[in-house]
Amino acid sequence: MLELIKRYLSREKAPDILRWPFTYSLGQAMIRGRLLRFPYRAAAMMVDYGLEETKKVYNRRLPSVWASAFFPTELLHALGIPVFSPEVAAALVASFGFQEHFLKEAESRWWGRDNCSFHRCAIGGLFSRYYPQPAAFCVSSHLCEGAVLMFSNLARIYKRPSLLLDVPVEQNNDSLRYVTTQLRQLISSLEEIAGLSLQHEKLEEAVANAEVARRAMQKVNDLRLHPASPLTAKEAFSYLYLYFTGLGSRAMPRVYETLAGELQERIRESEQKKEPGRHSRFKLLWLHLPPFYRNNILGYLEEKGARVVFEEFSHVYWESMDPGRPLESIARRMLAHFSYGDINRRIEVIKELAAKYKVDGVIHFSHWGCRQSCGSLRIIRDALHKEGLPFLALDGDCVDNRNYAPGQVQTRIDGFLEMLA
Fold first, then answer.
1. CA distance 182 to 178
2. 294: which of 165, 194, 225, 303 lies 20 to 30 Å off by Cα?
């Protein structure tokens, strides 16, 4: 069965399967029938949830929305609106090797290669009619200005509403009130667009789910401090799907609680067998995202005796959320992101993570087109050098493998590891 799927995925028109609801039902059946193997039960639960959500989007029985990577999905889950994340879809498409078709479609319509490939892939997928047309485009202004521009343009082209959450740079009471007011307005707009009415207890439930998920995520992060923790960086990156689309859902806390339980059990078994923990010559902290197409960067690091022990995107940066004050809690989370505003906020978090996980060096994957992450690299590098932390900036692209030079990347990694030795 798996071989047949792999053969089909290699065909030119393989992306057709992305728009068939049956594809996602088949995937769920294979997971539940244990025809697909996963390293953790939590991973199987997450994929099953993702397939269910995507199937809802393509079934079109309910109005769905496109939500940018940092939009507060608690609102959407409280309303029962299916969420489609174009950035997550682009990463998935790249992992299947379909991205070139979508990228070329966007480029043929004058979306240049200097734009973020996550967004170009999303644009190409929509223009090619592989991605679903939403009832609305929902985007937040913080962290990614490219998403705001892309959603605004697509909303104009497809004559759909574009709902913008404007997140101020300053963290103060005025900003909190401003964002909270906007959240109320967003709810009213979404109710009108979807023909739904939000029940307050559903909003409280969504925030309660987000809080349980937050605690479980932090527990997973703490377990990764143990030398016998088996969770790899590659596996950890896969759970970002929930971070971008699952906050507020019932599934996200279940997945992370299951993952924490599985990690605890495996660590306990390792201790009982008196097995040595995972030893590496060098422990590394990864900044930004990895490439999602086929590549061997993380594997090559492991071969060379270096291991990524934590990732910037896995950091739980927001404080506890109060279901009794749901909108204020969501607003506080939106304002709390350490990569938004003064660069010193991000630098301090990087230094804290480096100390907590006792890393020997830091790698930043500099995704082409991501100005907000790459624009401050020199400042970050200089700050880390003052702390005695070696820093490597790897230039590349998370989705467009035409911007990936494996030989050059390996050469730079070799030089970096020699410096650490």
1. 6
2. 225
Which residues in the chain land under pLDDT 50? 1-2, 5-6, 9
CA angle 393, 395, 397 (to 5 degrees): 135
Instruction: Please tell me the number of Cα atoms within 13 Å of 185 on its side-chain side.
Output: 12
Question: How many whole angstroms separate alpha carbon 104 and alpha carbon 399?
Answer: 13
- Ramachandran class of 276: left when φ > 0, alpha when ψ lies in -120 to 50, beta otherwise: beta
Tokens describing residue 1: 């069965």
pTM for this one? Answer: 0.94
* 121 contacts: CB under 8 Å, gap ≥ 6: 86, 89, 90, 93, 94, 99, 102, 103, 106, 399, 400
CB atoms within 10 A of CB 143: 17
Length of the chain, please? 421
Just give the CATH number of 2-200. Answer: 3.40.50.11890
Query: What is the per-residue burial (b if ≥16 Cβ within 10 Å, else e) of 307-330?
Result: bbbbbbbbbeebeebebeebbbbb
* Euclidean distance between CA atoms 376 and 371, whole angstroms: 9
Structure tokens at 194: 């979807």
Please, are residues 364 and 388 in contact by the beta-carbon 8 Å criterion? Answer: no
Give the tokens for residue 12.
């030119």
Q: What is the pLDDT of residues 68-84, one digit of tens each?
A: 999 999 999 999 999 99
Burial of 52 per CB tally in 10 Å (0-12, 13-18, 19+): middle
β-bridge mates for residue 287, sequence order: 364
